[in-house]
Amino acid sequence: MPDIAGSAKVRGMNNADLIVATLKAAGINHGFGIPSGNVLPLIEAMRRGGIEFVLTAHEGSAGFAADVMGRQTGRPGLGIATLGPGATNLATGVGDAFLDRSPMIAITCNLNRDQLGRRIQMWIDHHALFRPITKASLALRPGRIGETVAAAVRIALTEPQGPVHLDLPEDVALAPAEEEIPALDAVPAPGAPSAGSVEAAAARIAGAKRPVAVIGATAMRLREPDLLRAVVERHELPFASTTMAKGLIDEDHPLSVGCIERSRRQVQRRFLAGADLIVGLGYDTIEVEYEAWIGTAPLVHLDIEAADTDGKVEIAHRTVGDLDAILDGLARAEPASNEWTDAEIAAHRDAFQASLRPDAPGFAPHRAIDVVRQVLPSDGILAFDVGAHTHQIASQWTAHGRRSFLITNGWSSMGFGLPAAIAAKIAAPDSPVVCLIGDGCFQMTCGELTTARRMGLAFPVVVLNDGWLGLIKVKQMRRQYAYVGTALGTASGPEEGSTPEHYFGVPAVGVRTPEALAEALAEALAADGPRVIEAFVDPTHYDDTVFD
Fold this sequence. Notes:
This protein has helices spanning 15-25, 40-49, 59-73, 85-100, 126-130, 145-157, 170-174, 195-207, 226-234, 265-273, 323-332, 342-355, 365-375, 388-396, 417-427, 439-445, 449-455, 470-478, 514-525, 542-545; strands spanning 30-33, 52-55, 77-82, 104-110, 136-139, 163-169, 211-215, 239-241, 256-259, 277-281, 299-303, 315-320, 381-384, 405-406, 433-438, 460-465, 502-503, 506-511, 531-536. The protein is an alpha/beta fold. A seven-stranded mixed sheet has the order 14-13-15-16-19-18-17, sandwiched between helices. Strands 2-1-3-4-6-5 form a six-stranded parallel sheet, with helices on both faces. Strands 9-8-7-10-11-12 form a six-stranded parallel sheet. The chain is globular. The two termini are 47 Å apart.
């Protein structure tokens, strides 16, 4: 992080300029939001200070985009909103960053100080709103601007990472700066684990006959991500992953057994039931609690925090502390061996993948997902959304790299996919990006196509149109409820429905076969701007695969 300690006050700098200068020093180059009169002083300061303001169609999308910028860059994402409804809209994306552990600065631009707390149009208590969904909610006041922003950056980046809210009254933003630009402190690492605890973990692994590692979301933030591969290879550990941790080790690896707790979860649970030890590597229970799937196998939990369990999980050993240090110790420990064979692991992986692709009428979602995986280069980035397709993608998709598989699983909010793709393309403009979302998600956020178009961001948006809120429809079916509130009215099958020529000026095309999707996707990846591909799919197989 740049050290600008001792920088003299800049003549003519106001507090908004000081805020921007501090955020710029922290490596922040973009901020997402929607203007209002109260926001204008900050936007003008961003223009002067070299942080680009990205106009989104909704503050919720601004929050999602800021979350993903934090994940992809390792620096806090920046979301900006006005008071009242702007703040409440932004809160959805802030909650996402809080439960998914993404570093973020959320700034609400408020009334003048003498109006705070009065019964005035749009005013609410922002701190009461954001306190439960942030690591801290801080007021910006003259004389403490720099130290407050610097503290917010440090808090956001300190593990467990997350969002920090800053509330900025307009008169404070416009007041002359009274401080120098602050130095930015080094971010502290989690406490070091004891050597004895790491050695005990290694001994537990060495003593197991059929251990399985499960990689979780904390591992997404490793400083040295190659340590994961070093550990599983040194100790010959078959490994699964949670949804968000996919790709931290290439899933083509011969020890990979796939994603847990998504489509065909029972297939994975039966495999895990054959383990005599589960090794949680950076496993954050916010994605899925251990007791949902672990059965009777004892657990070795290795993470920055103790596991949240219901008391039924047998925790054989835990090592809590800096995950890099824990994994480094395991990578240096005496190699362990076990009874798993390469053939056994490969047979399970093949059977699991086959179960995800049942014979199905027409253009099934699993066929569309396979096409996207085949066409998107192996180093490409996939951003997707929440719904029935989430379960299918998480289990079916082969992820090859870190930061290549973008989803929310702690917050699990619809509306994430398109803003995530926008942020991913801004963060890595030379990387191919595909946004793969359901029709319900597209209806929520299609206005963000204007954001992508305005910024000249070239990526395809593949909409899996089955005419339903598919995940809820499956839940209704399983409870023997009527299908109420889940029909989207866009299409009732692959032979019905039509696609307009464009959405908000973004060219669109409809496809009904894998071949047509492959052709349209290849063309879209070569285009100079965003494209929409509406894939009319038959969702019948969701009934069997999503929860089985």
